[in-house]
Amino acid sequence: MLLTACVVLAVGFGTLWPTLVVHGPAGTDKTIHLLAFAAIVLPTAIFTPRRLFWIIPAAACYGAAIELIQPMVGRTADLNDFLADAAGICIGAGAGLLLSLFVPKP
What we know:
The chain is mainly α and 106 residues long. The chain has helices spanning 2-16, 28-47, 52-69, 79-100. The chain starts with a helix and ends in a 6-residue tail after the last helix.
């Protein structure tokens, strides 16, 4: 839970910082969104997969809220960013569930 909270804070900081500019090829920002939201759900999927029923919708709502808030801090909202967030959530959950098979159970 602490790891997830730290990732959530880092994602919020990175996505709501007013002057953040991402350099790289086209689509780099979408890749960053995907990886960030995968990182949000991955620890839960690995260590407490039964909690995915709430972390998945919470992460999706967080991504939507970020897109709604961004215009207020000098950034632009983008539906494709939200779709990248959703893809990351799915990938993080799936990868985490696979990895959870190798984590010893108490």
